[in-house]
Amino acid sequence: MSTVSSVEIEEIARQLAKERFDDHAARGLARAYEEFVGRRRRAVGPVVLSVDGKPYPSFYAVLADPTAKFATGEVRLERPPASPGDWEFLQPLEKVVFHDDGSADLHGTDGGAPRRAIARVLLREHYVVRSKADDRPEARSVALARIPGLLGTLEQGTTICRAASVLPFEVAILLYLPEERARFEVDVVHSTLLCDPRAGRLAAARRVRRTSRIAWGLDRKLGRGHLSLLATRCLEILVESNGLTGIDLAHIFGGVREIVDSALKSLVEQRYAAFDARTGTYRARLDEFLPVAPGAPAVPVSPVRPELRTSVQELIAAADARAVCPLCGRPIPGGPHVLLCDDCAEQVGLS
Fold it and tell me: What is the CB neighbour count within 10 angstroms for residue 205?
């Protein structure tokens, strides 16, 4: 799959934004595109895309086709690397097959049976079309409000990009497995699967695998879009560690230490991380990403309150691939339609 040029992306932006795509928006898109291409990360390999049973040359071609929904699809690595080092911090991947219920099958490179997962996509680097009028201070919040969310199914992500005139440069495919969440970052400009930023820069032994429950709580926070890209990346790595210093993270991202320190301080201010001044170590506050406060009973003694109701997508993802009830934490039987344990399902009206 070939690289999508800035001219091609601009044409799609005009198609999506129509009269809102003025010279001001064109300059902003060109600047964002060049900045993204200039800091392009190392890739595992090229990917091939098919949507709703039809092959597409790129994700931008999907956006340009109003008949493409991305209810089903497949992302396949064209030439999976054989070296284990290329997969450092990643699940070895041959392809991911997406289903219309929001689930997916993860096919590994070992040729074994696929692993069933809950699939979501998180918008990473992107450009939101802003006309000259949109960039006025009093209009910026209105322009940003056109993005109803950055975390959802692939179909929801495609719909959001079209409706809010969002041009993605990089997206993260999130697969919630029973024991953990796998994250694959895709450069949609060059149609490549990206290496993990920690590869070759952090010892693999320092990674701590977290449950899908914690990962879902983290992803929901990131999906709000309130953090800078660097702060987002720092937080993801902190969550999957027992603590790292600013020097560690500056080495991982290859940036200026002061810029990384600024991102880390913003995480501390928002209570997503804590700083140990004695050792210079930053640690993620994992309690911020758990659905139940520390010390709360595993099974609530009072009925489930109405405010605990949530969307089906949230229930599915929070259920740790249908291993436990996302509301009370009880184990639940597997099955394609089981979201909650029997007691919680009755109390929230899903039985």
Answer: 6
Name residue 254's amino acid.
G
Would residue 201 count as lying in a domain? no
The answer as to whether 249 is a domain residue is: no
The residue among 153 and 302 whose pLDDT is bigger is: 153
The mean pLDDT value of the chain amounts to: 83
Give the C-alpha separation, 272 to 235, whole Å: 8
Q: Is residue 182 part of a domain?
A: yes
For 244, the token pair is 């790292």
Query: How far apart are alpha carbons 49 and 329 in whole angstroms?
Result: 37
DSSP-H helix ranges across the chain: 6-17, 23-38, 59-64, 137-144, 154-164, 212-222, 229-239, 246-253, 257-269, 312-318, 342-347
Q: Could you give the CA distance from residue 26 to residue 32 in angstroms, rounded to a whole number?
A: 10
Q: Which residue has the higher pLDDT, 310 or 48?
A: 48
Radius of gyration of the chain from its Cα atoms, rounded to whole angstroms = 21
- The pair of structure tokens assigned to 181 is 């969440």
Count of other CB atoms within 10 angstroms of residue 350: 13
Report the distance separating Cα 37 and Cα 33, nearest Å: 6
Question: Which of 105, 133, 108 is CA-nearest to residue 119?
Answer: 105
Spatial contact of 137 and 66, defined as CB atoms under 8 Å apart: no
The reply to whether the predicted model has a pTM over 0.85 is: no
DSSP letter for 125, please: S
Domain coverage including residue 169 = 1-196
- The answer to whether 251 touches 283, Cβ cutoff 8 Å, is no
Determine how many CB atoms are found less than 10 A away from the CB of residue 267. Answer: 22
Q: How far apart are CA 25 and CA 30, in angstroms?
A: 9
Mean pLDDT of 272-297: 82
| CB atoms near residue 98 (< 10 Å) | 24
Burial class (CB in 10 A: 0-12, 13-18, 19+), 158: buried
The distance from CA 114 to its chain's CA centroid, rounded to whole angstroms, is: 21
Enter the tokens of residue 190.
């060059």
Q: What is the tens place of the pLDDT at every residue in 154-178?
A: 999 999 899 889 999 999 999 999 8
* Count of domains for the chain: 1
